[in-house]
Amino acid sequence: MRGVSKLAAGLAGLITISWVCGSGAAEPAAKNATVSWQSDLKAAQKQSIRTGRPMLIVFGADWCTHCGRFERNTLNNPTMAGYINREFVAVHLDFDKQQETAEVLEVEALPCTVILSPEADLLGKVVGAKAPKDYWEVLQDAKDEQARIRQTRFASGSSADRK
Q1: Peptide bond preceding 111: is omega within 30 degrees of 0, i.e. cis?
Q2: Can you tell me the distance from the alpha carbon of 62 to that of 89, in angstroms, rounded to the nearest whole number?
Q3: pLDDT at 157 (0 to 100)
Q4: What is the structure's pLDDT at 153?
Q5: In sequence order, which residues have a C-beta less than 8 Å from that of residue 75 and are 6 or more positions away?
Q6: 102: nearest Cα among 58, 38, 66
Q7: β-bridge mates for residue 122, sequence order
Q8: Domains and CATH numbers, the chain
Q9: For 87-91, what is the mean pLDDT?
C-alpha cells in the first residue's frame, strides 16, 4: 500500500510540474492570461483580509533587466498568471517609488517577491528571477505556511482566522 501512495504522490507531483511549466495543455483562454496587479498596498490588504488570500508583493524597477526577464518568463507565463490571480492578491510596486515599503519589508535586491498573510505574517520571500517551476514551489510553500499559521491560531482560540 505504501508503494501505491508513493506512486500516487509522485504522479501528482509530475502532473503539477507539467501544469506549472505550461506543457501546452493549457486551455486556449489561459494563453492570454496576465496577472491582475494592484499598486495600492492598503487596498490590496483589505482585499486580502476580505478574501483570505495572501498578498503576493512583487518589487521591480524600470531599470532592472532581471525584473523584466522575470516578468516575461515567469509572471506572464499564462498558467502562472492564472494561478496567481486565483490564489493571491497580487501587488506590483516600483522599488524607486515605494522605498519606505521596500525598507520595511527588507527588500535589498530586485526583483523581490514578498508573500504576506492577510494579517501581515511573512509567508515567504523570493529574491531574484526564478523559473516558473521554482517560483510555483515557493508560492505553494507560502500557502502551506498560511494554512499552518491559521490552524495554530484557530487551535489557540484566536478569532482572526475563523473564516
Answers
A1: yes
A2: 22
A3: 76
A4: 84
A5: 35, 58, 81, 84
A6: 58
A7: 116
A8: 33-155 (3.40.30.10)
A9: 98
